Amino acid sequence: METSIRRGTLLLLAVVCCFFAYAQKKTRAENYSAYLFAYFTGNTKNEEANRFALSNDGYNYRALNGNDPIISSEKISSTGGVRDPHILRGEDGAFYMVVTDMVSAKGWSSNRAMVLMKSKDLLNWTSAIVNIQKRFPGNDSLLRVWAPQTIYDTKARKYMVYFSMKHGKDPDKIYYAYANDDFTDLQSEPKQLFFSPTNGACIDGDIVHKDGKYHLIFKTEGEGAGLKIAVSDQLTGGYVLRDKYIQQTKDPVEGGGTFKLNNGQGYILMYDVYTKGRYQFTKTTDFENFAVIDQDVTMNFHPRHGTVMPITKKEAETLISKWGRADDVILSAQSRSVKNINVRFDTSSKKLYLPVKPSTNLKAFQPGFINFPGVAVTPAKPADFTKGPVKYTVALKGHQPVTYEVSAMENHNPVLEGYYADPDIIYAEKTGRYYIYPTSDGFNNWSGTFFKAFSSADLVNWKDEGTILDLPKEVSWANRNAWAPCIVEKKVNGNYKYYYYFTAAQKIGVAVSDNPAGPFVDQGKPLIDKFPAGVTGGQQIDPDVFTDVKSGKSYLYWGNGYMAVAELNDDMVTLKEGTTKVITPDKTFREGTHVFLRNGKYYFMWSEDDTRSVNYRVRYGTADSPLGPINIPENNIVIATNKEAAIYATGHNSTIQVPGKDEWYIVYHRFNYPRGITMGNAAGFNREVCIDKMGFNPDGSIIPVTATHEGIKAIR
After folding, report:
1. Is the C-alpha dihedral spanning 420, 426, 430, 433 positive or negative?
2. Which of 3, 93, 236, 246 is 20 to 30 A off residue 152, Cα-Cα?
3. Strands (E), 477-569
4. What's the pLDDT at 578?
5. With the CA atoms of 26, 30, 31 and 34 taken in that order, what torsion angle do they form, in degrees rounded to the nearest 10?
6. What phi-psi label fits residue 459: left (phi over 0), alpha (psi between -120 and 50 degrees) or beta?
7. What confidence score (pLDDT) does residue 274 get?
8. pLDDT at position 223
9. CATH class given for the domain over 326-410
10. Pairing of strands 402-410, 351-356
């Protein structure tokens, strides 16, 4: 009887303990209110280190510790660098992080180790190096150990670490092993978990348990490259491949990482688009269909292969207290009225300048500074910025409050949101709107692959019309270097047609549409793919199209290092044989020809120097014919760097005349403001489009234009 009572008591205690453990786990999950992003940033030794960022919603992230490492790689690794951090909340309340022990400078097949890390508070971490080749015999041919991750095995009641390894000439395969209780070593020899049935590399595994199934997301290479999913009922084997790619881009990707949204509305799959220096975020509810949500995501850093973990308010406060900075908070304005790439901040004087979009109500403007747990920004209500700077105080838990002077001003330059360059502009008779056709910029070494269009009724408020031509999808003869387009509107048999000339892979093509915003259809082959007679250097780039109202003829101009012209046939998609002519004006000519007619005189504009140079600028000459010769005035600079306003590298322009008026504007690109001047050569592919007023003297000479931030007023 007594034994039965004891057994019943023990059983009751076990049930109570299980209930409280379940209730504690359920409550903890329901109380997640923020997200922690662990990542590294690049391939230099300083960049190969663990960094942290916070988000309130899983979409908008701010780096902690000024985007500096939160742990010294030298102290925890054998190579001096770590990559690919994966962070996990343990079943025991601790936090687990595993990283690749590697520096890329030593080669992609140079590492044999990973680092296991553990923490009770997300601030203080213990670490242990596990060198697979030394730890487990029989791995003499091991070349690399990549991208470890951790998951709790509920059946084995142990933490399982899984990672890819490459032996000799074999492809990379995914292995697993169990960690010891202290998370300082692997207690079992690695076993193969999965390999790609296509016999390509299989790396960057990420396991998600959903609806009783284990979803292994991995990157494969060989016959194709990208992310795929294999599914199993068991954690440690039996994975069946779903043989389709799930990334939503044609660019190479790696480092897939998945996390569940705190609001229960699905999962985020993110991955590193490493050749373009960006991340892509997608959303899914079923791991079958993935929708791109990049338009909703913001970051003030550029991550490489990382992972996100939901955290509580208290944990977020702890991280802010340790690694939060008031300067980072004041730079976090989330208002959609702010031109985020043009924010200027003086760290010494604590003065912040926020450029806002047209028609922003500055009498009651709310910058929308991010409000993490442990952060208070005052005033919290909209403020009147029309009377001058407004003082804001940032208080972080555990830190002294800091006060800033914040100014907000409506400047119309740049006119387009984001990085764009080489703008061509037209007024479309069909729609009664203006259209800008730029190079899509912001890609390393001018590596963009698509073109967009923007429209406006007043030259100030611009609508993004979306992608109008995508090289990989819609152009058979080139898939890279989408540069410097131009366009012309023509009436053919009573209907408007639009002929769009563009650069791709250093060749010039033409696409046609019935509408100025597309879609455009490429003609299937390049229009220009070789040097004109007598030219041996330069590039076949930067087309410009001009229709002469005197003769009705249309001409195409192009060239880098030389200026060429040819008459277009009536079909507008072929050149008239025997009309190609080289008319380079002088030694200042580099690229970016633009031609227009005013008062019977033909104006030729071009850009001097290199687009990466602060001396990039526009010059002009005139002629009595669209074929030249070009007469060059003594003082022929149209627009150049304005150092006083910190506006640099103003070039590659077009012009627009307001219909029916002798009112002219110049459309050009410049380095990004204010960051460009600090970027070195990279400023040359992080450019932005601006518009300023252009005028003429009585003799027809162009009055030099001063580049401004203010830009122009909306035209009527």
Report:
1. positive
2. 246
3. 483-492, 495-504, 507-513, 521-522, 544-547, 554-558, 564-567
4. 96
5. 130
6. left
7. 87
8. 59
9. mainly beta
10. parallel
Question: Which of 325, 303, 418, 419 minimizes the C-alpha distance to 370?
Answer: 325
pLDDT score recorded for residue 10: 44
Say how far apart CA 196 and CA 217 lie, in whole Å.
12
- Across 411-449, the runs of DSSP E, i.e. the strands, are 420-428, 433-440
The CATH number of the domain covering residues in 33-323 = 2.115.10.20
State the Cα–Cα distance between residues 615 and 381, nearest whole angstrom.
44
Same fold across 33-323 and 326-410: no
What residues in the chain have per-residue pLDDT under 70?
1-30, 222-224
DSSP 313-362: HHHHHHHHHHH--HHHHHT----TTB-GGG-EEETTTTEEEEEE-TT--G
CATH superfamily of 420-703: Glycosyl hydrolase domain; family 43 (2.115.10.20)
Q: What pTM, to 2 d.p., does this model score?
A: 0.85
- The domain ranges of the chain are 33-323, 326-410, 420-703
638 CB-near residues (< 8 Å, 6+ apart): 605, 617, 618, 619, 620, 653, 666, 694, 702, 704, 705
Phi-psi region of 294 (alpha: psi -120 to 50; beta: other; left: phi over 0): alpha
Position 243 scores a pLDDT of 86
pLDDT in tens, 230-266: 999 999 999 999 989 999 998 889 999 999 999 999 9
Which pLDDT value is given to residue 30?
53
User: What residues contact 600, with CB distance under 8 A and at least 6 apart?
Assistant: none
State the pLDDT at residue 200.
82
pLDDT at position 173, please? Answer: 96
* pLDDT, tens only, 71-96: 999 999 999 999 999 999 999 999 99
Residues 6+ apart with CB under 8 A from 181: none
Name the residue among 53, 64, 62, 48 with its Cα closest to residue 99. Answer: 48
Q: Which of 594, 616, 615 is nearest to 605 (CA)?
A: 594
